[in-house]
Amino acid sequence: MAGYEAWLAYRPIADADRRAKIVAWTEAISADEDDLCIRTAAAELAQGLTRLTGRTPSCRTQAPGSASSTAAGSAASISAAASASAGRSVRLGTFEGSADVRESFSEAERASVAEEGFRIRADERSLVIAGTTGKGVLYGAFHFLRLVQTGTPLDGLDVLHNPANGLRMIDQWDNIDGSIERGYAGRSIFYRDNEITEDMTRIRDYARLLASVGLNAIAINNVNVHRLETMFLTEAYLPRIARIADEFRAFGVRLFLSVNFAAPFEIGGLPTADPLDEGVQAWWRATARAVYDGIPDFGGFLVKADSEFRPGPFTYGRDHADGANMLADALAPHGGIVIWRCFVYNCKQDWRDRKTDRARAAYDHFVPLDGRFRDNVMLQIKNGPMDFQVREPVSPLFGAIPDTNVAIEFQVTQEYTGQQRHLCYLVPQWKEALDFDTHARGEGSEVKRIADGSLFDRKLGGFAAVSNIGDDANWTGHPLAQANLYGYGRLAWDTDLSSEAIAEEWVKLTYGSDERVVETIRGMLMDSWPIYESYNAPLGIGWMVKPNHHFGPDVDGYEYSMWGTYHFADNRGIGVDRTVRSGTGYAGQYRQPNAGRFESLADTPDELVLFFHHVPYAHVLHSGKTVIQHIYDAHFEGVEGAEALLAKWDSLAGLIGEADHAAARSRLQEQIRHAEEWRDVINTYFLRKSGITDLHNRTIY
Ligand code: BDP
């Protein structure tokens, strides 16, 4: 069930034969290194196997601070009695720290394991989970438990997994008052009533969830850093933050803080926050030192600057390279990095002068700065050029700054995709972005190869995403929204996994392997994004949502506002002309052949046609339908799709825990009502604008 334990519930394995086989392989667990993550790995394995098989493996690990692996087996280092059993054991360790583990692999095999990767091998004697580092061993242990649960035979097991991305990060948009910006699953697990929490229970359990899917970094506060969060960098808060970092460290997750660019001015008593001012530079250096005193493995700073009313280097006539590099220099002596967001645009434009195109902003700001950023700076680029809409093209900034480290940013929290009231499995959306070929180095220059750093041979690369959890009993509100957090982690680890495979894995771990359950829920997940899209704003246009909170349809809510998010619908047509020929020129930010494809109305894919072109309602799409008929049909189909989701879920009654079934059911019912509202508002708006009736004469108000 998708409850508090999420995908780590480890339901008992029903098949007695299989259970016996697993028990035979896992009678004992031994790890003879003094390493925090390896101790965590052993504890996780012991716990998981006990629950899966009903039998507790004997467990031998090194107590903290005890002798190193060379003393392995010495009585003093054994915290639990070694098993005298004749069964086979699971051995955990690193190549460097454990002679035993090292000898199980050839030199070439050892060399094939990246810093955070792992190998799992079953031989006659034992099952070895080996890594180059303790973190790798921890990921290996979680993977092993996954294999056991998804029915993989252990005989002859021999797998190697290295993470595709170095940085696999989750961002909390949590505020110290306990609220979560764009949070849809309760209040913060980190903060309450303007205090950092002292109760580590949920934080530890969250760290576990993150590590189990391979995530290795977290920013624990909102990118919009207000007064009290700015103070996180001071002695008043650092000890408690260090306490949180301790919990994450045990699970291999590095802690980052979002910082306020104006901190030297706002809390440091300096007259300026100018990045070229020596006093400011010294302030950040001292601040970084203080942070590292308490958190020696601190990850670094995440920065939203000159965006949506946040301060930044523009105030001082400096650019973003000046700003990011100044922070990078303060962090460099300690091994920290700066993650600098590219979500920079003018949110105060005048709609009467619709010449500026917000979609262009990130590229226009950052391309001229390529090559100027320090090695320990990463630019974090949202997947699309606007803002996490249900459908956007890929940001053209991917591939356009080859001399800069980049990370891709996704939104796991469903701000624009149903706010965890609607079902919307986002992995297929992310995969589309990752698989987009930018042609930056010719064919085969997919976004995923830019994000992971490999295409341009960058030192740093990776994924970041806004989390979807809060203190709701099941973490995510909608039980099925857990699949998005799970899927994000798995995809960050392995960008080649398919959406279906990830969905299936999640269902098996969460609900068990009953075929009907697996097939039905996997199908629901896979259908959900297209369904949500079909009753949303049409054909890539986006933004027909209620201003501010972004839930529910509002046809003109943003049309006459300053945020730069227009659809330009009138009585003749709709869409934003972003061509070079007659529009904003945005299409020209892509490389060929993409630029040409988006420039041409005939070649632009249907789902993005209104993002790139202003067309009459009678324009005929590749599907053979006119734009207006597509809008009507899609919105009727969307409601039918939502109804089908509920029917599928209902077919699982009795096969799913009652509380869980009821929780998702009420949300799916709400989704239908809400899809109807979307359908009626959008269809009515376009009927009135266009005056063109529905070919099928359905009721439009
Ligand atoms: C938008 C959100 C806003 C965030 C902003 C960001 O509406 O709350 O602060 O993104 O990414 O999606 O900074």
Describe this structure in words.
- By secondary structure, the chain is α/β, with parallel strands linked by helices.
- The protein has 3 domains: 124 residues, 2-Layer Sandwich (Chitobiase, domain 2), CATH 3.30.379.10; 331 residues, Alpha-Beta Barrel (TIM Barrel); 119 residues, Alpha-d-glucuronidase, C-terminal Domain (Alpha-Beta Complex).
- It has 21 helices and 18 strands.
- An 8-stranded parallel β-barrel has the order 7-10-11-12-13-14-15-16. Strands 2-1-3-5-4-6 form a 6-stranded mixed beta sheet. Strands 8-9 form a two-stranded antiparallel sheet.
- Helix 2 runs parallel beside helix 5 and helix 20 runs antiparallel to helix 21.
- It is globular.
- About 3% of the residues have low confidence.
- The site of beta-D-glucopyranuronic acid (BDP) has 10 residues, from loops.
Quick rundown:
The protein is 35% helix and 11% strand. It is of the alpha/beta class and 701 residues long. It folds into 3 domains: 16-64 and 87-161, Chitobiase, domain 2, CATH 3.30.379; 167-497, TIM Barrel (Alpha-Beta Barrel); 535-576 and 614-690, Alpha-d-glucuronidase, C-terminal Domain (Alpha-Beta Complex), CATH 3.90.1330.
Please describe the topology of this protein:
Layout (H helix, E strand, L loop, with lengths): L15 H10 L2 E4 L4 H18 L4 E3 L28 E6 L4 H5 L3 H5 L6 E5 L3 E6 L2 H16 L8 E4 L5 E5 L19 E2 L2 E2 L4 H12 L4 E3 L7 H4 L7 H12 L4 E6 L3 H4 L11 H17 L5 E4 L16 H12 L5 E5 L19 H6 L10 E6 L22 E7 L15 H9 L11 H5 L9 E6 L15 H12 L5 H13 L3 H21 L37 E2 L19 H6 L9 H4 L2 E2 L10 H24 L7 H33 L11
Parallel strand pairs: 1-2, 1-3, 3-5, 7-10, 7-16, 10-11, 11-12, 12-13, 13-14, 14-15, 15-16
Antiparallel strand pairs: 4-5, 4-6, 8-9, 17-18
Helix pairs in contact: 2-5, 10-11, 15-16, 16-17, 17-20, 20-21
InterPro entries: A-glucoronidase_C_sf, GH, Glyco_hydro_67_aGlcAse, Glyco_hydro_67_aGlcAse_N, Glyco_hydro_67_C, Glyco_hydro_67_cat, Hex-like_dom2
GO molecular function, one term: alpha-glucuronidase activity
Pfam families: Glyco_hydro_67C, Glyco_hydro_67M, Glyco_hydro_67N
